[in-house]
Amino acid sequence: MAERIVIDPVTRIEGHAKISIYLDDADQVSDARFHVAEFRGFERFCVGRPFTEMAGITSRICGICPVSHLIASVKAGDQIMAVDIPPAAEKLRRLLNLAQIVQSHALSFFHLSSPDLVLGFDSPPESRHIFGLAKINPELARGGIRLRAFGQKIIAALGGQRIHPAWTTPGGVRSALTPEERDQIRDLAPEARATSQFALHLFKGMLDKYREEVETFGNFSTLFLGLVADDGSWEHYGGRIRVADADGKVLADGLDPARYQDYIGEAVENDSYLKSPYYLPLGYPGGIYRVGPLARLNLCRQIGTPLADRELSEFRKRDGVRHSSFHYHYARLIEILGAVERIEQLLDDADVLSEQHRARAGVNRREGIGCSEAPRGTLFHHYQVDQHGLLTKVNLIIATGQNNLAMNRTVAQIARHYIKGPTIPEPLLNRVEAGIRAFDPCLSCSTHAFGAMPLHLRLIACDGTLLDEVRR
Amino acid sequence: MKCRVLVIGYGNELRRDDAVGPQTARAAAQLEIPGLRAVAVHQLTPELAEMLAYAARVVFVDADRNGDGSVRSCPLEPTNISSSLGHLSDPRELLALAEALYGRSLNAWLITVPAPDLDFGEGLSASAERGLIAALQQIALIARDSSTMTREGEQCTRPA
């Protein structure tokens, strides 16, 4: 009898989603779908607004990664104005984006995922959260909070506030750091670096314990897509797009982000507001690819900082590390370390204090495409404007959407491993959530959903009969 | 940074009266009460737990759309209700986090200010403006008595 399991909603992710697992007549998992059932519609209601407002508007998409939208938006604005921004502006934007990566990754690992990892996936859900973590490993919990605060302090210093800072603008940025702010951040960097190293040490020590999860949490071959620098190094702000297969073979390199429509298709399924982008030359759904920390580490030649490169080298020596989405956690921690090191390098650059940080111009092009690496992956903002700079078309391609196909496959893989009949086993419930959480999906960004509710999982027969149900 | 009284005002400053928390915090900072530190934030985040660890007592200020129209000041107890998202919806959760991470159990109050207008935009309604003044009086009272007051036995209060 064909059946369907529904997990609704998924907890400890940003936003609200539902998961359906389809069983065939033999009670074997045939497919899984990650549905996002809410809609906020930024691509529609922004039409008619001036492009100069888009940084401020789209940063409201999300309270976790507003900076990512600021960066991609103003890069699209730079193109519409047809300006090369001052070097200081680029360095300051880079500093902001690195701080965003630190604070968002810290939230993902320390607050959302480490309770699973430290307390165990099968520990009671009522204690599997930051408070439970604080009891078992207060040093890790405190370190995580301070690490996130480090990133947010930089964002607040640059943007005036931690959340939704309206500081970047087409053409550059509104202000530089003061020497006092730079020194305060510099003083905090060693602790941030030490915390990320501590977390990496802890995580690597846990890997043997989670062999089963490494094997089943999205452990398959896909393409990877992301920005790399001109020399192939890890990149988060500039550079060009590289696409590689699961074995590291580069399929396409040096792709212009502004020509994303040449190589990224956007499929839409009727059961989700989450788009399903795919690599166009391989078609849909064969062009499945992953973005984000794991993709960036699989694509780059090096990170370009000593401590993170040492960790990257060790990461690459582990068997199968390229394939399993469980290792998004590992990659995230290495990226935190690299981002902190790069922040320290930027603070030594006099340009971060420069007053030459903004180019001014009007509408000189009718189209602009901004691309950057958000913590969760590659982000595109595509705008078309009229002669007055009013938006006539907006298209946003968000990291979480680009991982949609991989998240579906991850759920199916976990379900195949744990479902042995027409009931919902407890380990499945915990691990499906954790498998999705490895991607750190931000549904607020990708569909502009809002809110989070307790877990609800249902097992439904093909005739609509409710066979099993679990609420959390 | 140690302080005797920490005031945390929170809310969305683009939703009219929801801004009364942050605006009260900024106004409290201007009162020049010795040992008082005030922060205005968009939402409560776990990072604030560390700030609590260095305070003797804390006053949260929030907008209240469902109240009876009066400013209320209630003592708070820590509560573990976390869903571990990036921000916390309840100040009691933040108190619990400070206790769990830093071993600090501190006297805390929540002052709620009437917020009849939560539409998009800036600027407080007359009701919220009046509430802001009353909230400042409550904060001054808590700060003034901070050396002698305890949480035990305290009741919700309404300004006259």
Note the main attributes of this structure.
heterodimer, A: 472 residues, alpha+beta, 5-stranded antiparallel β-sheet, 4-stranded mixed β-sheet, 16 strands, B: 160 residues, alpha/beta, 5-stranded mixed β-sheet, 22% strand, globular, disordered C terminus
Mean pLDDT over the full residue set of chain A = 87
Helix content of chain A: 40-55%
Distance between the termini of chain B: 34 Å
Q: Which percent band covers the strand fraction of chain A?
A: 15-25%
How many β-strand runs of chain B?
Answer: 5
Largest sheet of chain A: 5 strands, antiparallel
List unreliable stretches of 5+ residues of chain A. 445-455
- Count of helical regions of chain B: 4
Shape of chain A: globular
Q: Which secondary-structure class do the elements of chain B indicate?
A: alpha/beta
- Total beta strand runs of chain A: 16
- Identify the most extensive interface between protein chains: A-B, 27 and 20 residues
Q: Which strand order do you get reading across the main beta sheet of chain B?
A: 2-1-3-5-4
Report how far the terminal alpha carbons of chain A are from each other: 27 Å
Could you tell me the radius of gyration of chain A in angstroms? 22 Å
Helix content of chain B: 25-40%
* Strand neighbour order, sheet with most strands of chain A: 3-2-1-15-16
Write down the overall mean pLDDT of chain B.
84
Annotation field: number of helices of chain A: 15
Succession of helices and strands of chain B: EHEHEEHEH
